[in-house]
Amino acid sequence: MSATLPHLVPGSGLTQNDPHRPDLHRNDPRQKLIVALDVSTAAAAQKIVAAIGDSALTYKVGMQLYTAEGPQVVRDLVASGRRVFLDLKYHDIPTTVAAAVHEASRLGVTMLTVHAAGGAKMLHAAVDAARANNPALLVLGVTVLTSLDENELEKVGFRGTVRDEVLRLAALALDNGCKGIVTSAHETAAVRAELGHNFAIVTPGVRPAGSAHGDQARVATPAEAIAAGASHIVVGRPITEAADPAAAARAILGQIGS
Ligand code: C5P
User: Fold this and answer.
1) Tell me: the pLDDT tens digits for 229-257?
2) What pLDDT is attached to residue 6?
3) CB atoms < 10 A from the CB of 227, how many?
4) Residues 82-115, buried b or exposed e (16+ Cβ, 10 A)?
5) Active site residue 89
6) Which of 51, 64, 113, 142 is the most exposed place for a label (fewest CB within 10 A)?
């Protein structure tokens, strides 16, 4: 991908995979936006990233693109100056998850996900593996998928409300060293109220006001998600399927401000 993907231009804010670059202002709204590259080829991903240009800094590589194209797609994004959120939602025995996190950190990803439901030992192993390789790597605990409602939760054995389950899994993730969680905007305010502000909340299920909901069960607008306490929003199709992805990204940046 790097062969034809333009490097982020100097002054656009980010030229290295370093979240603490002094030239990137903390209040730059691009710090809060993650664009989901849910496509099946590196070429399609590259087209989107090139079209977005410097209107986004961070891209989510999830299981579709990773399964289709493998780690090279991540290496190429990192080499081009983008940050990568590797959303593979690891959930396995601690040794296996630690080994996967070790490999992910070697790819240079900035953020990655593990299922909080994997339990304390697995979360700890993931955090330790991340720390050993890259102390700045943000390990995020996935709480409850935004597509699940209480009926579905009960079928998989969770007895509480969505809110209760999110709070329980978020606390478990944070208690075991995760520096952030993934949850829907609808639970974000409750998580902030119960667990504080000293960690990241990454929120998918974000739709610009007035757009189609698709398969997102618990949606919010970008402004609502940030107002509820999200530190980052994940937006896919409203940007990647837009006629002008850069304009769509900029419109969202305008809604979340600084
Ligand atoms: O719907 P959109 O294209 O914005 O999805 C972006 C990301 O949000 C997806 O990669 C997916 O992981 C996540 N998502 C989710 N729950 C859904 C739909 C999507 O968490 N119901």
Assistant:
1) 999 999 999 999 999 999 999 999 999 98
2) 74
3) 14
4) bbbbbbbbbbeebeebbebbeebbebbbbbbbbb
5) yes
6) 64
Q: Of 140, 127, 30, which Cα lies nearest the Cα of 83?
A: 30
130 Cα–ligand 1 center, Å:
25
- What is the Cα 100 distance to its own chain's centre? 17
pLDDT of 146: 83
Measured from the Cα of 207, ligand 1's closest atom is 4
Quick one: average pLDDT of 31-49? 98
> What is the distance between the alpha carbons of residues 257 and 158, in angstroms, rounded to a whole number?
37
Integer Cα distance of 34 and 202 in angstroms: 9
One-letter amino acid for residue 107 of the chain: L
**Residue in 216, 218, 237, 239 to alter for ligand 1 test, most ligand atoms within 8 A of Cβ:** 216
The predicted model scores a pTM of 0.91
Q: What percentage of the chain exceeds 90 in pLDDT?
A: 78
Residue nearest ligand 1's atom 17 by CA: 216
**Ligand 1: residues whose CB is within 6 Å?**
36, 38, 60, 62, 145-147, 204-205, 214-217, 234-237
